[in-house]
Design brief:
Layout (H helix, E strand, L loop, with lengths): L34 H14 L3 E3 L1 E3 L2 E3 L4 E6 L2 E10 L3 H18 L4 H16 L3 H12 L3 H28 L20 E6 L4 H13 L3 E6 L4 H13 L7 E3 L4 H10 L3 E8 L1 H13 L9 E6 L3 E4 L6 H13 L9 E5 L5 H4 L4 E3 L6 H13 L7 E3 L4 H10 L5 E6 L1 H12 L10 E6 L13 H9 L1
Parallel strand pairs: 1-5, 6-7, 6-9, 7-8, 9-10, 11-12, 13-14, 15-16
Antiparallel strand pairs: 2-3, 4-5
Helix pairs in contact: 1-4, 2-8, 3-5, 4-5, 4-7, 5-6
């Protein structure tokens, strides 16, 4: 029975509770010999050796459909980590029903009690669950130890600690009153379920998109990306250990249309929390618009899609730090982050150095003229002065001066094996003098061969051998 607003309510707790002030979770180094490195390696070995069964979780119950897909290592496709069960429209209906039932109780919890569950989950991830979630992310999404640590561990922990703090600030926002009235805002959950769709590239986003609305009293249907099933499975296991009630988050695996179409068609849809591609998000938004008259409420749509992230460099920027930031920001995790940089705005005073004003082009003596003409073509096309420095001349003298320069960042070479080995030895003998370790890329002479098939045309084969 609903409480009578005219009757006073008994308080279970007298006092204004405050969540602990959040701070960013420290990133562990996983350095050689460290305890966290040993623990992570052991967990990686154990999880790589097992092939687990991943069911749907609806209303707290595990459901196995018998229609399965495989979760494999992206860096070793033949290595199967898990078999996950595919859901269909009937399971979407079950999940919506379970969310509706759970909402009757969950929405009446005090926000502090809801927050306590996610704060506990953060503490579990800080301690006993850290290596499991990091290992799942490394094996299932091909991240390095560092990339998994800053994502699956640290960012997830931060979400689960900062979100309650932000919720507290939101609930603190109340209207002004005077002696004649006491104005109050009741921040009610949405009426219906939230559809959370999470991507493959960040375990932390998989953790945040379903739990942020749940923190505010909503219940959720969660569909993770098909290439992030392993980390999604362990995330829900962690939340259940932290005390999340059945039905608050219902985990349904399956294809986008198989799960998304019936979810978006439900009159109970109250919100969408999405990270993924622009076309998919636009399609979902378009579908909601077309069905807007069929919903009980206007669904709230929150999404993040791919963009053109940029770097703006100040004229006073440190050139080495800037170059490192550009490379890491653009290409870490193979450039698959939604935050990956795709353009750079650099001031004119930094551009030549940023593009490599220490590049020295030493052409072969027999090709100096043709390479000089190439250089002139590059300059005519707009290559700024100093980006490439064309230096024909004595190979030994030029090489010695280049190798002796503290700013040498790399060597790009094609030529004889003996010369490349000499350059390599020269770098190795001077490693301590360089500002950073030079990168050596070279191609030398080899023993290329022609393999002729018995049916080959003899005349064509002879020509190919001569050419």
């Amino acid at each position: 029975m609903a409480p009578n607003p005219s009757e006073p309510q008994r308080a279970a707790f007298n006092g204004n509770r405050r969540v602990p002030a959040p701070v960013n979770e420290p990133v562990r180094s996983y350095a050689s010999g460290s305890p966290e490195r040993a623990e992570l390696k052991a967990r990686l070995k154990a999880m790589a050796a097992e092939r687990i069964d991943i069911p749907l979780v609806i209303g707290g119950k595990e459901i196995r459909t018998g229609r399965t897909g495989q979760a494999v290592m992206p860096h070793d496709h033949a290595h199967v980590l898990a078999d996950w069960h595919k859901g269909g429209s009937e399971h979407v209906t079950q999940a919506i029903d379970a969310a509706t039932v759970a909402a009757r109780d969950w929405s009446t919890w005090s926000w502090e009690d809801r927050a306590a569950i996610f704060l506990k989950a953060a503490e579990l991830l800080t301690t006993t669950w850290r290596s499991t979630l990091n290992a799942a992310t490394m094996l299932g999404q091909s991240k390095t130890a560092f990339q998994a640590e800053i994502d699956a561990a640290c960012e997830t922990i931060d979400f689960w600690r900062f979100n309650p703090y932000f919720a507290q600030g939101l609930y603190d926002e109340q209207p002004l009153s005077d002696h004649s009235m006491w104005n109050q805002i009741d921040y009610r959950p949405l009426e219906g379920f939230v559809y959370a769709v999470t991507p493959f590239n960040f375990t932390a986003i998989g953790a945040n998109l379903p739990t942020a609305p749940a923190l505010m009293g909503n219940t959720v249907l969660w569909k993770p990306a098909s290439s992030a099933m392993l980390s999604a499975h362990w995330l829900l296991q962690l939340l259940q250990e932290a005390g999340l009630p059945p039905g608050v988050i219902n985990l349904v695996y399956g294809g986008g249309a198989k799960i998304g179409d019936p979810a978006l068609a439900s009159p109970e849809l109250a919100g969408i929390h999405f990270t993924g591609s622009t076309p998919v998000f636009q399609s979902m938004w378009r579908t909601v618009g077309e069905k807007i008259a069929s919903y009980r409420n206007y669904p709230r749509i929150v999404g993040e899609t791919g963009g053109k992230d940029f770097i703006v460099a100040h004229p006073s920027a440190d050139i080495d730090a800037l170059a490192t930031a550009i490379v890491r920001g653009s290409f870490e995790y193979q450039g698959q982050k939604c935050s990956a940089a795709s353009r750079v705005f650099a001031p004119s005073n930094l551009w030549p150095a940023l593009m490599g004003n220490t590049v020295v082009w030493k052409p072969a003596a027999t090709a100096a003229l043709s390479n000089y003409m190439v250089m002139r073509l590059l300059e005519e096309a707009g290559l700024p002065p100093g980006v490439i420095n064309f230096v024909p001349g004595d190979s030994q003298q030029i090489s010695e001066r280049v190798l002796a320069d503290r700013g040498l960042a790399g060597i790009h070479f094609t030529g004889s094996t003996a010369v490349f080995q000499t350059l390599w030895k020269g770098v190795a003998s001077r490693l301590e003098q360089y500002a950073s370790y030079p990168r050596l890329v070279g191609e030398t002479g080899g023993k290329d061969f022609i393999l002729a098939h018995p049916s080959a045309d003899a005349e064509a084969l002879a020509v190919a051998m001569v050419r």
